[in-house]
Amino acid sequence: MEWRSGKRGWERWLWIWAFTLTIGNGFGFTSTAIAQPVVMVLGDSLSAGYGLAQGTGWVDLLRAQMARDGLEFKVVNASISGETTLGGRNRLAKLLTTWKPAIVVVELGANDGLRGTDLATTRANLDAILEAAASAGAATLVIGMRLPPNYGADYGRRFHALFGEVAKTHKAAYVPFLLEGFAEQRAQFQDDGVHPRAEAQPAMLATVYRELKPMLERLRRKAAG
Asked: Which of 43, 74, 159, 184 has CB 3.0 to 4.6 Å from 36, enough for a Cys bridge?
């Protein structure tokens, strides 16, 4: 093949280069974007951004924060409003196969608690989620939740405790409470009294990022050798 000099030659070279990347990615070759390790958030409406304008949820803010910190990870939000630990457990195998995440952030259990689900069932589902993620080679971060007092002091105490217990069993990183610092501030919640407003999302991000950032930095150092 003869390479021509001048503007037309460079235009042709750039077009072939772009075409090669496109075809290569289709056959398993990777560009820089494809090679980025994945952080996958497996959550419910609190992570799916229920009732918020697009791009204002804490997971969206996480992408921007990581970019500012020079942490080149792809964030996949696999959260669904109304999701339970059972739903997340049932969806996880396909998600792990599709995204091959380096880190799985598990923010599930709130809907179990609101429905009064047997705690042994919730624990078993979380155990299965963390075991599957670990078997796929992913590090894990568990985000805990608390229930309103009307669910009973004993159930609420045992519900909150199980998140830390599961995280300890699986040697996962742990955030005790996603709504830390504002859970009792009615003005921080939407009209339903359950879902935080956009104004509360930075606080949620800060709570998660305290534990997540060191995990990201360790993975970056490991990749750098």
From this structure: 74
Beta bridge partners of 107: 43
State both tokens at 28: 């398993």
Residue 90 contacts residue 129 (beta carbons within 8 Å): no
Distances (CA, A) of 162 to 6, 11, 103, 192: 67, 60, 21, 26
**What are the catalytic residues?**
45, 192, 195
Calculate Rg over the CA atoms of the chain.
21
**Amino acid found at 216:** L
Q: Tell me the per-residue pLDDT of 100-121, one tens digit each, with 9 for 90 and over.
A: 999 999 999 999 999 999 999 9
- Give the pLDDT confidence of 9-58 residue by residue, as tens digits: 434 433 433 433 333 333 333 334 447 999 999 999 999 999 999 999 99
Alpha helices in 73-186 (DSSP H): 85-99, 110-114, 119-135, 153-169
175 contacts 144 by C-beta, under 8 angstroms: yes
Measured over the CA atoms of residue 183, residue 117, residue 47 and residue 100, the dihedral's sign is: positive
CA distance 136 to 13: 40
Residue corresponding to tokens 């339903």: 192
Name the 3-class secondary structure at 49. coil
Distance CA 6, CA 22 (A): 25
Q: Domain limits of the chain?
A: 1-35, 36-224
Full-prediction pTM beyond 0.70? yes
CATH class for the region spanning 36-224:
alpha beta
